[in-house]
Design brief:
194 residues, alpha+beta, 7-stranded mixed sheet, two-stranded antiparallel sheet, 7 helices, globular
Length: 194
């Protein structure tokens, strides 16, 4: 079982947990290059802005945390493995109950169709995972997250490990030393997520 104090301490040191898809053992990751978003210069795609204006999706915060994390843990179309084990789900649900883990949900006609979750600590938000059951659902939720973080004065939006989807959304990679500098500055801020 992951201890909550251990989990929060790991984030402060630049680590995050993953589980091995084969045996679900937890290991701690600290990538040499870190994927982050520049909150101030982030720009949503034209498609996301168009869909936002059309109000096709409803976006909520912390309405369905368990549904979001389970959606993120579900196998993807081209990959039946997941790094989000039952132990990780349980730990993050505890963090959510403590007000430290948050979900951003996209709804379409009353159905949860996408979203993301992460941990807020000081002026840092650690994005963990996102999922989508309808085109653009997770991107709409992500866009609302960035707007929210910008309004609240957050300094760091950590996306952990770069992948093509994050790159398409505008993530950049920074060296570990730079990440730790940004992290140290961000966690010292006193900001309430909601």
């Amino acid at each position: 079982m992951i201890r909550i104090d251990e989990l929060l301490g790991a984030y402060r040191q630049g680590f995050f947990p993953m589980s091995d898809p084969k045996d679900e053992k937890i290991f701690w990751c600290q990538p040499y290059k870190r994927a982050v978003f520049n909150i101030d210069s982030y720009r949503a795609s034209r498609d996301v802005l168009r869909l936002t204006r059309k109000n096709e999706f409803t976006v909520t915060f912390n309405k369905e945390f368990a549904g979001v994390i389970k959606g993120c843990a579900a196998p993807r179309k081209n990959d039946d493995e997941t790094w989000i084990s039952g132990e990780i789900i349980e730990a993050y649900i505890k963090l959510h109950k403590l007000g430290l883990a948050h979900s951003i949900e996209s709804w379409y006609e009353g159905e949860l169709v996408g979203g993301l979750y992460g941990i807020a600590m000081g002026g840092a938000f650690f994005g963990e995972s996102m999922f989508s059951r309808r085109s653009y659902a997770s991107q709409i939720a992500f866009n609302q997250l960035v707007i929210h973080l910008k309004e609240r004065g957050y300094l760091l939006l950590d996306a952990q490990i770069m992948n093509p989807h994050l790159q398409k959304l505008g993530a950049v990679e920074i060296e570990h030393e730079e990440y730790m500098r940004q992290l140290s500055r961000a966690v010292q801020k006193k900001i309430l997520f909601l």
